[in-house]
Write a structure and sequence with these properties.
single chain; 0% strand; mainly alpha; 8 helices
């Protein structure tokens, strides 16, 4: 059963992702659709959920999928594809067991909390896209 604030969390995740990527050029799709950006989005979603006092559990995957699909450009179905990768790394446990992905998740979580608290524009996803 979804938490009563799940819709707010989904919208907040979507808002944060929109702020990060803006109008993402299609050329960056192959870079975006990798595990590091997906781990960041997992962390960002968890950070938003925790800052809204929503327990991080099964609903987090729903929040992740819907927030990513709503927040990222629809060109090439980027939101859905990144949500699928992110959900996969949650389910296989690599987001907490693999050091580079765990680090990305923690950075994403910090930015998710900051975004809820004072609307600090998140930036790490954009950095991942343009620097890799």
């Amino acid at each position: 059963m979804p938490h009563e604030n799940s819709d707010e969390a989904i919208e907040t995740v979507a808002d944060g992702l929109r702020l990060q990527v803006g109008d993402l050029p299609g050329d960056y799709a192959p870079v975006l659709l990798k595990a590091k950006p997906a781990a960041y989005v997992v962390g960002f979603t968890a950070g938003v959920s925790r800052a809204l006092d929503i327990p991080v559990g099964n609903h987090t995957i729903r929040t992740l999928e819907r927030g990513t699909r709503q927040g990222l450009p629809r060109e090439g179905d980027l939101g859905q594809r990144l949500a699928d990768i992110a959900t996969g790394i949650i389910l296989d446990g690599s987001v907490t067991s693999e050091a580079p992905l765990n680090e990305m998740r923690e950075k994403g979580e910090a930015e998710g909390r900051a975004f809820v608290e004072d609307r600090t524009p998140p930036s790490l996803l954009k950095d991942l896209i343009f620097e890799e």
